[in-house]
Amino acid sequence: MKIPDNRGTGNNISKKENPMIDHPVRLPDRQPVLRLVPMPRNENMFGDIFGGWIMSHVDVAGGIAAMRHARGRCATVAVNAFQFRQPVSSGDVVSFYADVIKTGRTSITVAVEVYAERHPQNPVTVKVTEATLTYVALDSGGGKRGLPEETQVE
Ligand SMILES: CC(C)(COP(=O)(O)OP(=O)(O)OC[C@H]1O[C@@H](n2cnc3c(N)ncnc32)[C@H](O)[C@@H]1OP(=O)(O)O)[C@@H](O)C(=O)NCCC(=O)NCCS
Q1: Cα distance from N-terminal residue to C-terminal residue, the chain
Q2: Is 147 in the pocket of ligand 1 (CB under 6 A)?
Q3: Ligand 1, residues 55, 77, 145: which to mutate, most atoms within 8 A of Cβ?
Q4: Which among 94, 78, 106 has a CA at the least distance from the CA of 33?
Q5: Which of 53, 57, 121, 141 is spaced 20 to 30 A from 81 at the CA atom?
Q6: Answer CATH for 30-151 from 3.90.1010.10, 3.40.50.300, 3.20.20.70, 3.10.129.10
Q7: Are 49 and 56 in contact (CB under 8 A)?
Q8: Higher-pLDDT residue of 122, 128
Q9: pLDDT tens sequence across 49-75
Q10: SS3 152
C-alpha cells in the first residue's frame, strides 16, 4: 500500500520501501569511516546487494577504527555478531560508522552500524546492518602486539 510521504515532494513511498516511515531514522551526527554506493554488479540473483559485499565493507570499516586505535597493523580475529536488518539496493548511499567499544591487552572490539540513504528525490534513511568485530594488534612480523597504554577503553 502506498502511503503519503510527508516531505513535500509530492511523491509517495511505501511502508515496504521504508518500514521506518512512522519513525524516521537519521544518520549519526558524526563522520562515517566509509561511505559507498553499491552498483548492479554487487547484486545477488534476486536484485538485492549481496550480503558479502556489506560484510567485507563492515570488516574494512571496523578495521579502520581498530588500526587508528592500535596505531598500526591489525587483523580481524572474530566476527562476534552480525545482523542484517534491511536489504540494500543499487544506488543507495551506504554509510559505515565504527566505534571502539572495548579493548584488552592486544584486542580491540568495534561496533559497526550501517545506514542506507535511498530515493534521492524523496530521501529516506534506514539502518541496514549492525555488527561487532574483534581485531588484534599485530607487529611487523604478524605477531600479537600489546596496545599502547593510553588507548585502553574500559
Ligand atoms: C590474530 C592472531 C595473531 C591471534 O593470535 P592468538 O595466539 O590466537 O591470540 P590469542 O588467543 O592470545 O588472542 C589474542 C586476543 O584476541 C582475543 N580473541 C581471540 N579470539 C577471540 C574471539 N573469538 N572473540 C573475541 N576475542 C578473541 C583474545 O581474547 C586476546 O585478547 P587480549 O589480548 O586483549 O586479551 C591469530 O589468531 C591470527 O593470525 N589469526 C588470523 C587473522 C587473520 O588472518 N584475519 C583475517 C584477515 S585480516
Answers
A1: 48
A2: no
A3: 77
A4: 94
A5: 141
A6: 3.10.129.10
A7: no
A8: 128
A9: 999 999 999 999 999 999 999 999 999
A10: coil
Determine the pLDDT at residue 41: 97
Among protein residues, the one with the nearest Cα to ligand 1's atom 26 is: 134
Q: What is the pLDDT of residues 6-34, one digit of tens each?
A: 333 334 556 555 555 566 899 999 999 99
Backbone CA torsion sign across 145, 103, 32, 113: positive
Tell which atom from ligand 1 comes closest to the C-alpha of 80.
24
Non-local CB neighbours of 19 within 8 Å, separated by 6+ positions = 86, 126
The pLDDT of 39-57, averaged and rounded, is 97
pLDDT at 2: 40
List of E strands, the chain = 2-4, 12-14, 34-36, 74-84, 93-103, 107-118, 124-137
